[in-house]
Specification:
With 493 residues, this protein is an alpha/beta fold. It has 16 helices and 23 strands. It folds into 2 domains: 277 residues, 3-Layer(aba) Sandwich (Aldehyde Dehydrogenase, Chain A, domain 1), CATH 3.40.605.10; 192 residues, Aldehyde Dehydrogenase, Chain A, domain 2. The strands form 6 sheets. A 7-stranded mixed β-sheet has the order 15-16-17-14-13-19-20, with helices on both faces. The protein has a 6-stranded mixed β-sheet with strand order 10-9-8-11-12-22, sandwiched between helices. A 3-stranded mixed β-sheet has the order 1-5-4.
Length: 493
Amino acid sequence: MASPEKSDNHDAMNFVNGEYRIGKSGKKFNNISPVNGSLISIVHEASEDDVDDAVKAARAALTGSWGTMQLAERLKLVTAIVGGIQARFNDFLDAEVADTGKPVSLASHLDIPRGAANFEVFADMMKNHHDECFRMPTPDGTGALNYTVTKPKGVIGIICPWNLPLLLMTWKAGPALACGNTVVVKPSEETPSTAALLGEVMNDVGVPPGVYNVVQGMGPGSAGEFLTKHPGVDAITFTGETRTGEAILQNAAVGVRDVSFELGGKNPAIVFADCDMDKAIEGTIRSAFANCGQVCLGTERIYVERPIFEKFVGRLKAGAEDLICGAPEDSTTSLGPLISKEHQAKVLSYYALAKKEGATVVTGGGVPEMNEMNEGAWIEPTIWTGLSENSAVLREEIFGPCCHITPFDTEEEAISMANDTPYGLACSIWTEDLTRAHRVGPQMAVGICWINSWFLRDLRTPFGGSKQSGIGREGGTYSMEFYTELSNVCVKL
């Protein structure tokens, strides 16, 4: 079933043990452009046997050449992946833009550079990793020496989302490989291309076969379920919606496998009257509408102190209406389509629900006229006011370019409303009062709280969600904790 060394440009294939292959079952499905509805590629779906082959290949590499390789040599290869991605920058860019429809300006400045940097950052961190040593007394007076030994966790199953396909996959694969693990990646069925393309880079830079594997397919009854149920997978890391995370968690419970999840969110922003209005508007336009609202950390609920409420709504409306929906390659484009017609239907159902529940539509609420691209998954950036806090539009994650703005009178009221959600991923606070910022920030029930900023990320810091927004933390040493197993050796002196 093996294919030639390089993948077919018209197919998205599985990558197992260093070779591309179609699925053993022969099943395949279409990868459709969200821009105009055209066919991008044929995706070859992995069977349960393909997934089993990928896990076995990963296990063989773990106990073979990769597992016995010296740390310096392993990190040299991980760092070489960065150069491999950079050398193929345009190929990765074209594949990512085709799958997602996002503007070239966004993908070229964020998705591909960060996708490469994730390997370099964690390779550098692993170079500086050190174990610990503890001396203890014993009753006979001779003492004992305890030292820690850091080992790879094993075969890691990586389940990736479609909104930032390369970036979020390498955010997991980078530290996993740097720590000496092997991986089996299941990209989203909506965005299969860059994960498959990365297999070519792995071969080109000399990463041993079986270290990096890709299985294409869906979730239930397909590659996702086969991978998360496979007893040969030692740990699972996943970014995606909470409901899918719950299903994966049930599978991971069999065999007591470790998990790291970044799940859904219904992220708030709190805008105080003493904010720098220009900063708050610029940051909120990005947090509500960037990547067509398809960002886990995006803002869907905005709470604005009453004295500046009307002004803020008016300025955010103007900013949203300045956004330009257009072809990815057009330099004037600021907003691409949603990922699929199916997701467009979901987001439009919330647009309709907002009207039904009595929302005031400040701007948007429909589908723009896109002429020859009308078959794409386009949607208007939308702002509402006037809904109650128990509205489904304010309780449920929509994952589109939309937000609701609510006025508040007191700091306590704003904190209460912002925290009143089953989710706890991220929030933004806009204030020029430093004391208030430090007072309010720690009260937010989220994994990351931004003050006067959004999407500002130091990769050394802990990242993840609280409540139904996730389990565990990634980034810096926190990723190393998940991707390694720590043992203690006690020596009686």
